[in-house]
Amino acid sequence: MTVILVSSDNQDFKVDKEVAERSILIKNMLEDVGESDSPIPLPNVTAAVLTKVIEYCEHHRNDPIQVPEETDDPRKRSNDIEEWDMKFMQVDQEMLFEIILAANYLDIKPLLDVGCKTVANIIKGKTPEEIRKAFNIVNDFTPEEEAQIKKENEWAEDR
Amino acid sequence: MLKYVKEGALDLLAFTLPSSLIESIRQVSDDDFLSPEWGHQQRQPRMRRRHNTTSSSSSRAVAPTQRHLLTTKKSSGGLFSSAGSILLQDTDTRSHNLPDSVSINCLNKGPQLPYEVLTLIFQYLPASDMFSILAVNRLWRQIALMETKQIDLSECFPMDCLGLGYDVYSDFDFVYHLFSIFPLISSLVIKDRYMRDRDLRVVTAGILAGKMAFTEAVGPAIGSEPYLEAQQVIAQRRAQQQGHTSTTNTTITPTKPTSTKVIRASIKEELREFSRSVATYVLIPQTRNTLRKKILERLEYNLEQKEIQEYCWMVENGINPLTFQSSTAASLTQWRTGPSSPSSHASTSTAAPILYAKRYPLVPMTHYRFQDCCFAKDWGSAMDINKLPMIGLAAAISGQGLVVDLEGSYGAPSKSIKQMMAFCFGAHCVISLDLNFRHTHMELEHVTELLSENPLLYKIDIVDSPAYHDLIRLPALRGLGEMMERMQKLCFDLDEQELEVTLQQASMLLKALDRDIDLEEAERADKKAPPISQAGLTEAISAADAAPSEPVPTYLMVQRRPLDDPRRPIESLSQQLKFAEDASQADKIRTAKVLLKGVIYHGVSGLINTRDRQSGQALLHTLAWRRSYSVLAALATQPANLTTSTTVNLATPPATLEQQSSSSLFSSSPSSSSLFATKGYFWNQAPGMFSSSAPSSSTLSEIAPNPLMSNLEPSGGAVLSDSPTASFSFDLSTSAPAPIQSTLPSSSGLSSLINISALPAALSSALSFRRMSLPVSTLWIPEDSEDIGVGGGTQPEPDSDDDEDKDDSGVEMGRVSRSSSPDNGSDQESDSDNEVATLNTSSTPVATTATAAVEPPARQEWVIPEQHPVAISLRMARKLLQLKANPNVYNKDGRSAVVCASYMGFLPMESLLIEQGGYSKELIRIRETM
C-alpha cells in the first residue's frame, strides 16, 4: 500500500505506507483518517527536503520504531552516528536545518536526532566566535554584557 | 587580512632569533590573525577535550601546547563546508563593527532552528562546550542556562587525570563553574576511565557550588539556621572565587542544594540503593575493568563485613551530635582566614579555638578509602594530595564527617600525608582515621598531634606502624611492647610453652587495661578523681607504686617508669605522650583514650600483626622464616655429604633427634667459619638484615655440620609412618676429595632429618623464601600481599614464579613430595613446603645417587618428630594463626592470617580460618593474587 505526500511546492511523492509511517505525524493522520487514497499535504516541507526525508525513511524502513527512552541514563552522544546517516547528512547547512525542521514537524525522532547530533558536532570544540562564524550568528550582546561574560569566563582562559 | 592582525602579532617582528619567531608564530593562532576585532573574543575553556570535532574514536588527549591549535581550527572546511546558510538572528542587533562578510551573511536569511531544537542540540554537547554556548549570543545563552538540566562530563579533560600541576585547579574550577553558572543541572553524566579522580572534584565542586548535597534527608533542614549559614559560606566562597563578579541576569543563584544525581549505569542497583540509604557517596568509576572490579569487590566486601555499616551506625547512633560542635562553616572561615598556609598542619590546628561555633546536627559523612581511589601505581602523583583537601573541604562545608582510611597508601610520603591531614583536620571533620600504613612512617608524635587537635577523631588504627611500636612501649601500656619483643624472641627460640604463657599474659593485660580504662572513665565522669596533672607528679608516682588490678609479669613491673600508673592508664598515657604546648588537658585525655582503645581493639591479634622495626618481621614471619631457615641449615650440610661415601640407615628411632633443642640449634655462640657464607647461601643478604633478632650466618654455621658425615652415627628423626622399620641405603660415593671431618661440629637433629635425596626439594623450599635473602631495600613481606588483590598498594607485581607459590602454599605437611632436580631447584618453589618431611624418589642430584633399598619410597610418609624445631615452629605458627583467625578480631588480621597460613604451607589452616572466620571470599581473592 502506498500513500501520496504533497510537498509545500505541490509536488507529489508516492511512497510505501510503511515508509511514510516512519513519521509519527503521518502515521497518526493515517490512523485517524483510515483507509484513503487522499494525498497528505505537508505544507511545511519543500520537495527538496521531502526527497531527503523520504530517502532517509526508505533506508530505515525496517528499523524498529523508537520508543521514548525509559532508561535512567540521559546520556546523549553525538559521536554515535551511523556511517550511512553521516553521509546522508553531508549537505549544506541550510538543507541540514531544513531537514531538522522537517523531522521535527513530521515527528521523525531518529532523523531529528541525527540532525541535532550533526549540528552538535559542528559546534563541538569551537570558541564562541567560531560558532558564530560557522552559523553566521550575530553577536547581540551589548559591550557591557560582553565584558561581563568575559569576566565570567576568565577562569577558563589560558594563563 | 593584515587589518585583523592584533598588535601582539605585529610584535613578532621584534624577535630576532628564528626560534623565538617560530615559537611566537606558533603561539599566535590562526584565529588571532583572522578573528575580527569587533567580536567578543571568548576563549575556549581551558579544558582538554577527548574528542575533536570530527573524530569520535580519537581518545588521545590534546597536549596543552596543542590546545590552541585545536580550538582555533578553522571550521570552514571539512564535512560541513558549505556555509551558505545562516542561523537566523535578530538583524536589528548591533552591527556597527561587523566586518563586511559577516554583515552580508547576516542579511541572508535562512531557516531558523526553533528553541526546542536548539535545546536538543545542546543536549548533545559535552560540558566543556557549554561555556562557549553561553557566549555566542543572547538566545543561545538563554537556552543553555534555562534548559540545561544534565551535563555530560565524559569528554572533558581526559588527559592528566591525576591532576598534575596547575591543571588540577583548572579541572576543579571547571566543575565548580559548571555548577555555579548552570542553575538547573540536576544530573551528571560521568563516564570516564579517569573518573575516579574526577569524581571527587565533581562532588566537591558540586557541594561548594551549592548544587550537590550528600543528602537532603538528614542534612540541615532547608531554611534552618545552620543551613542558611552554610549557604552563606558557600556564597562567600563563590564571591571570593569569582572576584565578586555577579553573573549575568539570567544566572540563577541556587537557593538550596539539590541532590544531584551522579549517574553510573554500571553500579549495581543494590549498591546504589545502599549508598542512597546511608547517604554515603559511593563513587565507583566506570574505569578499567580490573580496577572497577576490584573496587566493586572491595565495596561488596565492606558491605559484607559490615565495615561500612559500622560507620553508618556511628552516624546514626554512635556520636552525640553535640560532639559535632565544630561548626564546619565557622571552621572553614577560620581556616581560610588564618594567617598561615592551610597546608601547614600546625597553622590550621593552632587557629583560635572555635568557641562560638554553631552546633550542627550530625549529617552523614564520606567514607574515603584510599584503597578504593588511590590505586597501585597511581600513588605518588599529585592526586593523593589533591583529593583529600578537596574532599575534606567539601565535608567541612557540608557539615559532614569524614572517615579517612589511609590503609593501602603504600609509599605515601610522610610529608604528603601530613599535608593531607592538615587539610582534613583543618575542616575539623575527621572522625575516624586508619593510619595502618606500612611503608609510611608516621611517628607517634604526629599521631598524637593529629588526635589531640581533632576532637572528632575518636578512632584510629596504627597497628603495624612505627607509631604503634612506640606506643606499646610506653609504660602506660604496662609492658605490652616488652611483651611483643619477648614474643619475638620466643619465636626465634622456638619456645613454645613460654610463648603460650606470654600470649595469655598479653591477653590478660589487655583485658585489665580495658577494664581500668572503663573504671577511670567512670571515675572521671563522677569527678571523683582529680586528674594527675592537677595532683602533680608525686601522685602519679605514688599511684605507680600501687598494685595493678591484674597481675602483671614481674619482669614487666621492674621496667615501669615512675609515671606509669597501672590503675589510671589514660591519664598515665596522657602524661607520657608528647603534646603540643597548647593542648588542653581534655584533648590529652581524649587522645590517650583513643590510642589505648585502639590498642585494645586489636588486642593480641594486633600484636601478632605487628612487626619489629628492626627486623621487619612479624611473629608469624619469624616462624616461617625460622622453619625455612632450619631447612637451609640442614641444606648447608649437604655439600659436605657429597664429599664422602657413606650409608645411612634412616630407620634409627626418632628419639635420637630429640636431644636437639631449638635454642641450641640457633645458639649464639661464636663460630669461626661459616659454611653458609662460604658456600654462598647468603649471597644476597644485606648487612644487618636481621640484625637485632635473627641469627647471623656465623651463628648458623654452628648447625652446619652434617650428621651423615660425622662418624656415621645413627641419624634418625625421619621415620616412615607406615613402615617404621624400613631402612634405606644411600650410596653416596663420589670422587670428590673428602673434607677434614674433624673440624666439623657435632651433628644436628635437623640435618639428620633430611634425606639426601630430598635435598633438592629442601633447596627449593629454602629458596622459596627467597625474599628473606633479599636486601633490606627490596624486602617484600608476604603478608603485604593481602592488599594486592583488594585494591591498594604499590607493591611490586608479584613475580612470575609467584604462581608457583600458590601451589606451594597449599601443600600439606607430610605429603610425599613431587620430584625435583637441582637443575631447576633454585626457582622451583612448588615443593617448598615439603622439604623436611618429604622423600623425593625421582630426583637425581648432580653428584649424588639415592637408592631406596626396601620399597618404593613413594609410599612412604614421614613424620616429623614432635620436638623437632620445624615441628615446633609449625605448631607455634598454628597457635598464632588460630588467634588471628578469631572472627571477632579485625578482619584484616584474619586476611593476614590467611596469607601467612598460605605461606606457611598450611592447607588445613586455611580451612580452619574459613571455618572460624569465614574468610572464604577473601581467601580466594588472596590466593588468586599470590
UniProtKB/TrEMBL annotation, chain A:
Pathway: Protein modification; protein ubiquitination. GO terms for biological process: ubiquitin-dependent protein catabolic process. It comes from the Eukaryota. Residues 2-62 form the SKP1 component POZ domain. Residues 109-156 form the SKP1 component dimerisation domain. InterPro entries: SKP1, SKP1-like, SKP1-like_dim_sf, SKP1/BTB/POZ_sf, Skp1_comp_dimer, Skp1_comp_POZ. Keywords: Ubl conjugation pathway. Pfam families: Skp1, Skp1_POZ. Essential component of the SCF (SKP1-CUL1-F-box protein) E3 ubiquitin ligase complexes, which mediate the ubiquitination and subsequent proteasomal degradation of target proteins. Belongs to the SKP1 family. PANTHER family: SKP1. Component of the SCF (SKP1-CUL1-F-box protein) E3 ubiquitin ligase complexes. This is E3 ubiquitin ligase complex SCF subunit.
UniProtKB/TrEMBL annotation, chain B:
Signal peptide: none annotated. Residues 107-143 form the F-box domain. Residues 496-523 form a coiled coil. PROSITE patterns: FBOX. Residues 34-67, 783-851 are annotated as: Disordered. Residues 841-851 have a biased composition (Low complexity). Residues 43-52 have a biased composition (Basic residues). The keyword Coiled coil applies. This is F-box domain-containing protein.
